């Protein structure tokens, strides 16, 4: 491992986004290992979850029996996100680390917004209310058609979100696409239909550029 790299001023906040089965979680160990090789300190978190509150809320979020509506989902997500930010993300960034979150706020706009139909202005209002002003420095949007994502996770026992229908994920994908078009500097679309090795090559190459520009 190259340990010669000084801490990144302000850290580097990387998020992984995309629908189910796109390849986000599979990329985590690859990105971690690459960062370590380059001499960066790394931490990995996830949403829903991340901080202690979000992790405690995660089974509640995924519980079918609780009859959660879209607004209750949103309130749970943002309570968890604020705690995730305060307990994990902000301290890691302050320590100059690369913080990788497996899903973050773009998923809220995609799933609760696109999927469930909550107006994006309503989500933005709650986002503003939490007082988190920093956006990810880079977001990888793993883009796959819903049928391919679903096929990849077919062997898994589907959770509450994974049981949504194809139209839900088509709408969610549409929101990721809109957000990528609106913020092309932050959101990098990765063609996640490619073989895993090519996806991972693309991630490493794009992250290397972003970290170099960030220094
Ligand atoms: N590009 C790819 N080619 C082939 N298989 C892939 C590819 N990307 C991921 N997979 C496989 O698809 C499955 C789902 O991938 P993974 O768990 O990384 O998706 P995810 O985006 O984290 O999904 P979820 O949102 O459900 O957590 C895994 O078995 C993984 O090995
Ligand atoms: Mg995953």
TrEMBL record:
It is an enzyme of class 2 (transferase). The lineage of its organism: Bacteria, Pseudomonadati, Pseudomonadota, Acidithiobacillia, Acidithiobacillales. It comes from Acidithiobacillus ferrianus. Its EC number is 2.7.4.9. This is dTMP kinase. It comes from the Bacteria. The gene is tmk. Keywords: Kinase, Transferase.
